[in-house]
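Usage example:
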Amino acid sequence: MAENKTQKKAGYHHGDLRGQLVSAARRLIEEHGPDGFTMSDACKLAGVSTAAPYRHFSSKEDLLTEVAKDGLIRLRQDSEARAQPLPRGTVEAIAAIGRGYVDFAIREPHIFRLMFSTKSHAGRIEELRSVGRQSYGVLLNEVALYLGESEINDLVNRTSFPLWTHVHGLSFLVIDGKLDVNNFPVDIDEAILFATKSLLPPKPRLEKA
Amino acid sequence: MAENKTQKKAGYHHGDLRGQLVSAARRLIEEHGPDGFTMSDACKLAGVSTAAPYRHFSSKEDLLTEVAKDGLIRLRQDSEARAQPLPRGTVEAIAAIGRGYVDFAIREPHIFRLMFSTKSHAGRIEELRSVGRQSYGVLLNEVALYLGESEINDLVNRTSFPLWTHVHGLSFLVIDGKLDVNNFPVDIDEAILFATKSLLPPKPRLEKA
DNA sequence: TAACATAGTTAGCGATGCTTACATTCGCGT
DNA sequence: ACGCGAATGTAAGCATCGCTAACTATGTTA
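Running the assembly step on the lines above writes:
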């Protein structure tokens, strides 16, 4: 059982209860789904009483939003890590970002749904949107490189969007069990690569050196 | 306010309580989300006591599954109706099916999510899957026509899948508000048509007359 | 070291909402 | 006409949880 970061586990004062609650919630949500998740479970896992969280979060929703935000940030880090080792601005790098997206969904399906859900986030949707845009930005940058564009312009946006749409849909189909091995022996890598190639325009000669 | 089909509204015996509960649930879920939906609300809407549903459904989940099933059937009818007036086996017909898919999601986002969710359906997932396959079949048939294939073979499957994936993802992005007009002035028709064209292979000369 | 802010505890309120045991009423076949 | 079974009503059980009020313990600062 891997102990968590910033574990002080001292006595009364916890050290980083806020952070621990987020990661406790993360684990529990993955295990029982966002509905099966209860505050007291999170408290039990963090080793505090049921009232303690309310020093750090105004409500259960507030905590859930934090978990979602955390997920979006990790998704971005994932995506970056995937693209980095590959030759930049290539189909492969773009496909790798997509693969990272789907893998995240597979690894943490409940969190993934939570991240893109609008409900359970009260008045903080705009905040989430902003973090989400940063994750999307990883793809935008890579596509810009592919297209040889020096900034995120309209062409980059229009090119990236169907790619996002595709992996987003693929993610949901996978985690919702629509791709059972019998009827859909889908090779995810192949699916992503095919769609990426099909949806990208031919790589232009570099004119703006 | 359109009265529902099979409305008898007689006295004690209801006529078609089962059907009415499904459509009541449908309306309520669309209004308050699947979580905000309660049995007693459905009962109130159908004009019966809270115990009455249990003569027709074994549980709340059971009713929800029925609503989902109903949705999948209606989705299929929708898709068929969209493709029918258009020249068969064309890009346009295929795109129209996709558009129907997204429109359904927009029209009934909560039901749409419920239809593809795995939870809330207890032991009836296989049943739902089967109904879902029928909806997907509409696309498969159209793609088969496009490809000039006389049956649903592997090529048809492989060609159809990314199309489904794309509109599925698009649907979720739309209903989850990721395409706000400011940052994503996405023309849905255009998006679908572009993806459909990109993901379909060139139309083959018809050899099997 | 006194005083104050911060973090956590204990106890419990209050509301919700599914489900069931049992009574009741109606439609239909005989 | 009548009786049986299906359909609905009544009433309540009961478990779950989110959240709060009031209290206690620790850390920090002057």
